Amino acid sequence: MLKFPDNFIFGVSTSAYQIEGDNKNSDWWLFEEKGKLPYKSGKATDHWNRYQEDIELLAELKVDMYRFSIEWSRVYPSKDYVNYEALSRYREIVDLLRDHGIEPMITLHHFTNPIWFHELGGWEKRENVDYFIQYVETIANEFPDVKYWLVFNEPIVYMLESYIEGHWPPMKKNLFLAEQVAANMAYAYAKAYEILHDLGKVSIAKNMIYFEPYSDKDKDIEACRKAEQMFNWSFIDGILTGRLKVIRKEYDVPKSELDFIGLNYYTGMKVKYTLNPLRLHLDVEPIKTEKCTLMGYCIYPRGLYEVLKKTWNKYGKEIIITENGVAVEDDEDRILSIVRHLQYTHKALTEGISVNGYFYWSILDNFEWDRGYDKRFGLVEVDYTTFKRKPRKSFYVYKEIIKNKAIPDDLLEKYGENIS
Ligand code: NOJ
Question: Atom 11 in ligand 1: which residue has the minimum CA distance?
Fold first, then answer.
């Protein structure tokens, strides 16, 4: 049996736009309506109306903590109007969680923005940061009791998808704007930190990939180092040093702090040098393993351990795994993934790495952005016509792990990896 410390946090994560439904004041909704995105979020999982039922599920799972996001566009449907009804719904959610002994972890920005913010130029403009800070102040005022805060979810993913790949709103492909956006987010982070740090621990959820050079050629090794610096470290380095350099340009940003590192881990990639300057001379491809996911990448639990080790060696800060999960056809693979990622988390712990929590993404199947609804990450299956929830076997397995604060032997035997 692999035992976790008593204070280890077991959780699950969601985000507002992916589960609530009808977020009509959000930029994503606008782009969906314009027909620019491949899928419409619609009612999503209808969580906005079914939150009580969903909190019952969290209570049954007995998680220590639940990570969710507040939809900025719900709270501020227009620039200077606060929707108190929406705020009180979020308040009710926090109170209900507490009634069940579940601590909330709140994400303030999980990819989506209010339409009015988008129309003002969104994150491209430094002066717009004030609007975000106004929202942060409103939320901080409403939730002085919340102890865990994530200002941004995956800021570099947002920058890449929205301003380099152009797959997500505002669907631009502009390196100059991309870097500007990252700098404005780092600037906003520092301002938000000052407000939220009085309440509790503040961080971001940083997507980290395990990168490996494609070959032992110097050029591939250097390309790998570059990809890792850009994707995994640049934003955190920027926050901590006050100098942000994601790709080319270096920006001065206010030096700030991370009270822990929120780490989202999904997979590993191989990096190869390419002549193409438009790809920044980097070619990446998934590390292939025997189990791959519907997202096109593979399950690579050892990569989590490597990334935890590197993050710890680099920053020496407490780490919380704020997301890890798989979209798979067969729920058995979800169980395998949870067990193995936890095995490697445990290994990191035994080596003295301060990793204090693991959050599975996600409690429910949900709206997977431009990949739609058939990429199912949930411990609980959602029927999108009736909105009926049905816990999968993985739900009960995770429940057992949480109850024991350990991976029991029978699970290790059936699903575990030989990791000596
Ligand atoms: C990371 C993102 O934070 C989340 O929104 C997404 O659904 C999961 N990864 C799975 O792709």
Answer: 368
Tell me, yes or no, whether 160 lies in a domain.
yes
Q: Per the domain annotation, does 420 fall within a domain?
A: no
Rounded Cα gap, residues 56 and 59, in angstroms: 5
pLDDT at position 278 is: 82
Does ligand 1 come within 6 angstroms of the Cβ of 415?
Answer: no
Q: What confidence score (pLDDT) does residue 420 get? A: 73
**Distance between start and end Cα atoms, the chain:** 15
CA of 202 from ligand 1 middle (Å) equals 20
Is-contact 261 275, C-beta < 8 A?
no
CA dist 311 and 319 (Å) reads 8
Beta bridge partners of 382: 389
Give the mean pLDDT of 223-250. Answer: 98
Radius of gyration of the chain (CA): 20
CA of 327 to the centre of ligand 1 (A): 10
Does residue 149 sit within a domain?
yes
The SS3 of residue 279 is helix
Classify residue 370: in a domain, yes or no: yes
CATH code of the domain in which 335 resides: 3.20.20.80
**28: Cβ below 6 Å to ligand 1?**
no
Domain that holds residue 226: 2-415
- 329 included as an active-site residue: no
Q: How many domains does the chain have?
A: 1
The contacts found for 1-5 with CB under 8 angstroms, 24 or more apart, are 1/404, 1/406, 1/407, 1/408, 1/409, 1/412, 2/342, 2/343, 2/346, 2/406, 2/407, 2/412, 3/404, 3/405, 3/406, 4/346, 4/349, 4/405, 4/406, 5/349, 5/405
For the question of residue 413 being annotated catalytic, the response is no
Reply yes or no on whether the pLDDT at 279 is more than 90.
no
Cα 131 to averaged position of ligand 1 atoms, centre (Å): 25
User: With a threshold of 0.90, does the pTM exceed it?
Assistant: yes
266 Cα to the center of ligand 1, angstroms: 9
| Residue 161 Cβ contacting ligand 1 at under 6 Å | no
Query: Among 28, 158, 321, 369, which is best to mutate for testing ligand 1, by the most ligand atoms less than 8 A from CB?
Result: 369
